[in-house]
Write a structure and sequence with these properties.
Helices cover about 25% and strands about 30% of the residues. It is built from 14 helices and 27 strands. The relative contact order is 0.06.
Length: about 625
């Protein structure tokens, strides 16, 4: 046991780091830090018993820490940790790594840390995962090892992140005494009610005690307690998201307006319109929210924008006596996805009118860009002193045209030089970030390419062809949309080259929906190969893709086509079509009308098999 204790003490930060990154990100940083420490401390005795049976001390501790971090842990009672304080790791790299791993299963996250951070071999990591109870250790290692660390080399990581070093801040200093008094008062009332019930001998249900959270809830809705960030704070922080926004607008001192906004949030009045993005709660805040904006973006319309501690962004709107409140999720927002908020969408005689957006304080310039006219220069927009811009509505309708004009903005040189990006208003509270990933061979490279900003000429040309798919995107739920051109193929009968692309809409929750299309040369209509909701395909954790579609040549003949991403070595069709092709593309006569669609599979250079995307699955075996 002493040997195990020595190993725990000597490498304590590594054990906590392993547990922290294995725990799900949805728990929040405070809870994850506390649970990570608890997982390590509770592993001491079981690891000691393993060592007594001949196990290696390091492996025994790794297995026991993972068994607790990857399994179900009991909820933390409120007295665990430091009473009244919120805790989170001091190193930003840890949270960046956590975001990289958020979409992976728990044991895959653990495998990533063991291999990429602790330097273990894949075989060694698989043995530890098996000992910890992983159902598929080899699969977890394969998935976890495939994620490339974004911040530092393995040997440098101890200096980058140290979950044993934490920041603390008070959860609510002014309310702690009030909560304590409320708690004691509640206990007193409950005791009195119990005594009265016992004396009367009544068999009815006891009267409910007072609502213990009432004082905290009332304080969180007090306009005098709103958090206000100083104006220059954004230029002196390493965290550029909505928490760095100062309070702007000409009515930030209007206590009556702020009080009405908070009161509507706490108890919506009859007739108020409440809307929320998918998976976003509308419950009142537990702590005083941050004020981002209070003003009049249009005559007769007052707007208040708030951000709560759970990452919810809330827009309150008054039009005369009508009130509305809209909720959106902003977890893991950054420079591009926290760059703008839609304050108001106008309405002129039943048609879309001007839209007013509030830009992030780090946005230096703004321009409007017509996605249907990629060669037309972006038109500069004046930015008001309060950070607002007004976009005039476009006149297009139908799938032949793009949505409303996009906003092209550039970050301040104090953040990053020469960084411009596109934002599209797709009907949500937050505009959607548009990106583009070109063909690997377009730049003469064979490795995977990362999404880039869609402001270059090639990106604008491609988005002009594919922008109508944006009309199918739920702008309330989606944070970014990437257009990935993954293959170019010769079409049968000398009909030219077709371009295969995958459009991935990434939600704030991490979910991804994809649409794969084949676009023939010239002005031919694209063929939709697949629409797949909730898939890893075409994203960071689904970089290998195979898609298939039936295409009709100008002669009228139908062909079964397929194409794969850069690692595909051959493609095979079985069932109603039987053929095989070497390389990344496939073409064969299509199955007769009414026949069961064929099954298309591919093999990667690594030997892994891949099935074609369809409307039912993500295409991975």
């Amino acid at each position: 046991m002493r040997q195990v204790e020595a190993v725990v003490v000597e490498r304590y930060p590594r054990w906590v780091r392993l547990a922290y990154l294995t725990l799900p990100a949805g728990l929040g940083r405070h809870t994850r830090v506390l649970r990570a420490h608890r997982a390590v401390q509770q592993s001491l005795n079981p690891a000691g018993r393993r060592v007594a049976q001949g196990a290696d001390p390091l492996d025994a501790l790794r297995a026991e820490v993972l068994r607790r971090a990857a399994g179900r842990m009991l909820p933390l009672p409120p007295w665990v940790g430091v009473w009244g304080l919120r805790i989170w790791p001091s190193a930003e790299g840890l949270d960046e790594a956590s975001r990289d791993l958020a979409a992976l299963p728990a044991f895959a996250r653990a495998a990533h840390v063991l291999c990429r951070w602790d330097g273990l071999s894949e075989e060694h990591a698989a043995r530890i995962l098996a000992s910890a109870g992983a159902p598929d250790p080899a699969g977890a290692v394969r998935v976890g090892f495939a994620v490339i660390p974004q911040n530092a080399a393995v040997g440098e990581r101890d200096a980058v992140v140290h979950p044993g070093h934490v920041h603390t801040r008070p959860a609510d200093l002014l309310l702690r005494r009030a909560r304590a008094r409320t708690g004691w008062a509640g206990l007193g009332v409950l005791a009195l009610c119990a005594a009265l019930a016992t004396a009367s001998g009544g068999g009815g249900a006891p009267a409910p005690g007072p609502y213990a959270g009432a004082p905290a809830a009332r304080a969180a809705l007090d306009p005098g307690r709103l958090v206000r960030v100083p104006g220059p704070a954004w230029s002196d922080t390493g965290r550029l998201d909505f928490t760095a926004w100062p309070a702007r607008g000409d009515r930030t001192a209007d206590r009556a307006l702020l009080a009405r906004a908070l009161a509507t949030w706490g108890t919506p009045p009859a007739g108020a319109t409440i809307t929320a993005a998918p998976a976003t709660s509308t419950r009142p805040p537990l702590q005083a929210p941050q004020l981002l904006y209070a003003g009049q973006p249009e005559k007769g319309v007052s707007v208040v924008v708030l951000l709560d501690a759970d990452g919810r962004l809330v827009r309150y709107t008054e039009r005369g006596t009508a009130r509305s409140m809209d909720f959106a999720q902003t977890n893991d927002a950054g420079v591009t996805t926290a760059a703008s908020v839609v304050l108001l969408r106008g309405d002129v005689q039943g048609k879309a009118g001007p839209a007013v957006q509030l830009l992030a304080p780090w946005i230096a310039t703004a321009a409007v860009r017509d996605l249907n006219a990629p060669s037309t220069p972006a038109r500069p927009l004046p930015v008001a002193g309060d950070g607002t811009v007004t976009l005039r509505a476009g006149g297009g309708t139908g799938c032949a045209t793009a949505p409303e004009p996009a906003l092209e903005v550039a970050s301040s040189a104090r953040i990053v030089e020469k960084h411009a990006f596109l934002l599209a208003d797709l009907g949500g509270l937050l505009p959607v970030h548009l990106t583009y990933t070109p063909l690997p061979e377009a730049a003469g490279v064979a490795h995977a390419r990362q999404p880039r900003e869609a402001t270059g000429s090639a990106a604008l040309e491609r988005w002009a062809r594919e922008a109508c798919v944006l009309r199918e995107v739920d702008g309330r739920a989606v944070r970014s949309v990437n257009l990935w051109d993954f293959a170019r193929a010769d079409l049968p009968e000398g009909a030219g080259q077709g371009l295969w692309s995958c459009v991935r809409a990434t939600h704030w929750t991490g979910r991804g929906d994809v649409v794969v299309r084949l676009r023939p040369p010239g002005g031919g209509q694209p063929v939709t190969a697949a629409k797949v909701p909730a898939t890893a395909a075409c994203g960071r954790f689904g970089q290998h893709v195979l898609a298939a579609a039936v295409w009709r040549a100008p002669s009228g003949r139908a062909y079964q086509l397929a194409a794969g991403s850069r690692e595909v070595s051959d493609i095979t069709a079985s069932g109603s079509v039987r053929a095989r092709a070497t390389g990344r593309t496939f073409a064969a006569p299509a199955a007769p009308p009414g026949a069961t669609p064929p099954v298309l599979t591919a093999r990667l250079h690594s030997g892994t098999s891949l099935t074609a995307l369809d409307g039912e699955s993500g295409g991975r075996d």
